[in-house]
Amino acid sequence: MHLPSTLLFLSAIASPITAQLFSDVQPGLNATPRNMNISIDVTFPDTPEEEVGGPVIITNGITKNVNIAIVNHENGPIGVQFIGGSLWDPLTGASVRNLTQKVMGLEIEKDQREDLSYPIKLDMHPRELLLQLNMVLRTPEQRLVTATAFNSTVSIVEQPMSIFDPQLLFLYLILLSGIGGAVYWAYNYWLDTVNPKRRRGPRPAPREHAESPIATATGVEGKKFDESWIPEHHIKRASSPKAKGKSAM
Question: Considering the entire predicted model, what is its pTM?
Answer without folding.
Answer: 0.56
